[in-house]
Design a protein that fits this description.
This is Peptidyl-tRNA hydrolase. By secondary structure, the protein is α/β, with parallel strands linked by helices. The protein is 38% helix and 20% strand. A hairpin with a 5-residue loop joins strand 2 and strand 3.
Length: 199
């Protein structure tokens, strides 16, 4: 087995835990990791750290053993995401350049996305916490667009509110496409993924 095949990727869905937050725009990272867990055929289970739920397996086409992947959903609020991510990265021996953060992005319109490596946190508390705990921002990001709030609605209220009824009809397709982007990033690399998914 090659080093690449033996290496592990850590895919982190950013969100807030519990049913109160489940449908919020800020929790789209959780929805994408749920879809990936379904594709891997395993439910989330508590990690021994007690600070995250994880799924361990492989992603890729059936019959071809793809890269080893750990899906993670931190069990803390968004602004404390970095601690559990750092613990998981140490436990699975994953360097920052094999970490993928899946998160909501205000500056991208709903139903579009961007994939990139590195960058700032753009005011996103989850990314800020990860950058602080990992000591670097050089991890991948699958940025799922939620758009800006309408009118004068406060940004915090907007991200912590449910999708509109019109958006909820499109959301499953957006989540599915974002999961495809994560798979592509891990199996095909950044450049091809950007060509195919950066709308």
């Amino acid at each position: 087995m090659t080093d690449a095949a033996a290496s592990v990727w850590l895919v982190v869905g950013l969100g807030n835990p519990g049913p109160t937050y489940a449908g919020h725009r800020h929790n789209v990272g959780y929805l994408v990791t749920d879809e990936l867990a379904t594709r891997m055929g395993s439910p989330f289970r508590a990690h021994k750290s007690g600070r995250a739920d994880v799924v361990e397996g492989r992603l890729g086409a059936p019959g071809t053993p793809g890269p080893r992947v750990v899906l993670a959903r931190p069990r803390c609020y968004m602004n404390e995401t970095g601690g559990p991510v750092k613990q998981l990265a140490a436990f699975y021996k994953v360097p920052p350049e094999r970490i993928v953060a899946v998160h909501d992005e205000l500056d991208i319109p709903f139903d579009t996305m961007r994939v990139k490596l590195g960058g700032g946190d753009n005011g996103h508390n989850g990314l800020r916490s990860m950058r602080s705990s990992l000591g670097t921002g050089d991890f991948y990001r699958v940025r799922v667009g939620i758009g800006r709030p309408p009118g004068r609605q406060d940004v915090a209220d907007f991200v912590l509110s449910d999708y509109s009824s019109a958006e909820r009809k499109i959301l499953p397709f957006q989540v599915d496409k974002a999961a495809d982007a994560v798979e592509s990033l891990i199996t095909d690399g950044l450049e091809r993924t950007q060509q195919n998914f950066n709308s």
